[in-house]
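Hi support team,

I submitted a single chain yesterday and got back a structure, but I'm not sure I'm reading the token output correctly. Could someone confirm the output below corresponds to the sequence I sent? I've pasted both exactly as they appear in my results page.

Thanks,
R.
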Amino acid sequence: MRLAVIVLVMMGVLQGGTVRIALAANVSYAMPSLKAVFAKHHPDTNIQITVGGSGKLATQIRSGAPYDLFLSANMAYPQALFDAGLATEKPVVYAQGALAYLSNTPRDFSKGIKLLLSPAIHTIAVANPKTAPYGKAAFEALEKAGLLTRLRPKLVFGESIAQTVAYATHAADIGLVAKSALFAPQMQHYKQGTHWADVDPALYGPIDQGMILLKSSTNKPEAKAFYDFLLRQKARDIFIRFGYRVP
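Hi R., thanks for writing in. Yes, this is the structure output for that exact sequence:
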């Protein structure tokens, strides 16, 4: 009986545990590659992902949602959670995001943001600026270009970047999305300069994306292992491949 108990305990150690991650939607495109590399050294750790807008995920965490790690699309939400005593330490920047135009129809991107004034463009998909940092950055770009008032009637809102990408490719004429979305395998038929282009980074501030370990974590060692991995060069290389800058 004692031997059986020891065997069961050892099996539990070898099987590892589950790390539950609240993940900003823009990072979901890079996550399969990140998980695959992490699994080479932690094959028995199960990475469980919940994808959403950063604001909504932060609200869930405040309400007691059982996450171990929060990867936000900005620094404000994880900082607020740290200030509320819900994180083990201050948030760190794991990547810097970028905005891009995306259209299912070929466009003349040489016009820059003024392309959005075209009479041929009736709807522009953006993420909800109240809950999604990329939506906030899109509004900032439109406002800095002096176009927000004129273009506001054209705007349609996604609750996350993933939904905004879906709108841009299926419902709206064009969208302002996270550049990372364009490097997902299912997006390879959208060509740079034809279907998508970078939004001038001078039109919006740096999109510093922050992460925190949560005090409520029930699997701190493995959550910390994934947290540390995201700050190492192998993870940084993946982020760069998906259109991010890294600190």
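A quick pointer for reading it: The first helix runs from residue 2 to 15. Let us know if anything else looks off.

Best,
Support desk
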